[in-house]
Amino acid sequence: MNTLSIITFLTVTIGIAIISWWITRKENLSTVEGYYLGGRHLGWFLVGGSLFLSNISAIAIVGETESAYLTNMTVMMYGFASIFAMAVVSEFILPIYLRFGVTTTPEFLGLRFGPDLTRWVAILLIFAYVINLMPPVLYTGAVVLNGMFDIDGLLGVQYWTAIWILVWSIGIVGSAYAIFGGLKAIAASDALNGVGLVLGGILVPYFGLKFIGNGSVSAGWVEVLAKHPEHMNAVGKPTDSVPWTTLFTGMLLVNLNYWGAEQYILQRSLGSKNLSEGQKGMMFGAVLKFIAPLITVFPGVIALVIYPSLEQSNEAYSSLVTGVLPASLIGLMAAIMFGASLTTFNSGLNSTSTMAVLNLYRPYQEKRGIKVADRDLIKIGKSTQVMLAILAMFIAPFIYFASDGFYDYFQKVASLFSVPIFTVVVVGMFTKDVPPIGAKVALITYLIGYGFTQLINDFGLHFLHWAAIFFVIGVCIMLIFGKLMPQDTPFEKPESSAVSLNPWKWRWIAYFVTITAMIAVTLWLSPFGIAKW
């Protein structure tokens, strides 16, 4: 890394921090709503930009690039198919959350099914984030930054030491955003980093194609298609890691949960000024999803052409950046990758603290007859974030010793926690008579059943299909309980809301255009278009 790269990296990183502070300097962070929901003042740009960048983490960049390098572009459907899910959540789920004025998914479930469900789901999500979200984000961020800029060689330390240094660097900066700035500072930095990620991320395939084509992007594109048309395929065969049939089963459910019940993602939409801004923000995020495959997946195919025999396939992205980008842009990419690494971490940290404080600590104190002031809740929340951040930073480097197939493993574990929570959320939203015991039985049945198929015997069926099967079983269990043991008092939605629930008038046009474009691009990146099986 030369002096210019270091100066560029520091300038961009510090500049984003200063702009984020300026945007949030007048925010009242002494209230729970101000600290955890940005005072419900988030406009569509901050909502959509933050949704996009929280989704595009170092896990996605490293894991999806590696997957395209090894197999094909089918992994892109994890994110690309979410365009449909975002439209569904925007129209049917977000209005319900905003009507209730809740801060977290567990809080909604507590209103619907009682305090036990609040505790159960909060504990599940906290465990999932501390084990399967924040440490992998820190680790993959450290891996890609070290691969891009040879930090171990620059500092004259061992690779293991460099990973520790980078993990703690990302973790400390991300913690600062979350602890001192609250959700609005996170959203602001996410949106700003998102702009950089879009602009800088597109430069990687641009210069990669230019490198392959000896100065001509079009010639590089032709050579990629000629050499590896099978790697351009986004529609998976039954033997691929993401078979096309999963798009209509577990993939759909995972995406609906991700955008409609995953706390660290949903919290941005819950902080919207009103329903219209929330819907516009989600559709802005959906439009940005069309750019995501260029940033996270297609570079893997380009890397395969340039470096067909990498010893470490997880270094495909970093090898491409250092091999094709001009030296003057490496510092910019360092700042972008640093931002992409810390954004999901600080989002997970903020959301985990939100649930720990509002769904566990405050109810426990209220049950004891102690009313805790907002200022004290925020103080406890900050202390909680410090402890959780330290725990995640200690865990992260040890992922180095994990076996191969990290990205697929990450998705399998995520499905263990996500789909059962979405099951009880969606049935709770659209029924009135299902009792708490039905939700509890459905939740336990999914955890045991899905866990058995992934730990003991999957009977040759893809994990996303199993997720869909146990989702259907869970829904049936809840409906049966609602029929045989209905609640004494049917559940009723509140009559008013803390924010305006007037929907965005152009939303249906936005839904149609984005979903149609999603289908068209998917068919183009298939054997019906430019790819081969």
Give the fraction of residues assigned to helices: over 70%
End-to-end distance:
40 Å
- The residue-averaged pLDDT reads 83
Rg from alpha-carbon coordinates: 23 Å
Q: What are the segments in which pLDDT stays under 50 over at least 5 consecutive residues? A: none
Named at the architecture level, the CATH assignment is: Up-down Bundle
CATH superfamily: Sodium/glucose cotransporter
Number of helices: 24
CATH fold-type name: Sodium/glucose cotransporter
Query: SS-based structural class?
Result: mainly alpha
Largest sheet: none
Q: What is the number of independent domains?
A: 1
Shape: globular
Number of strands: 0
Beta-strand content bin:
under 5%
The top-level CATH class is: Mainly Alpha
Order of helices and strands: HHHHHHHHHHHHHHHHHHHHHHHH
Structure description:
It is a single chain. This protein has 533 residues and is mainly alpha-helical. The chain has a single domain (3-18, 33-399), classed as Sodium/glucose cotransporter (Up-down Bundle), CATH 1.20.1730. It is 74% helix and 0% strand. It contains 24 helices and no strands. The longest helix is centred in the middle third of the chain and has 54 residues, at 159-212. The protein is globular, with a radius of gyration of 23 Å. The chain starts with a helix and ends in a 9-residue tail after the last helix.
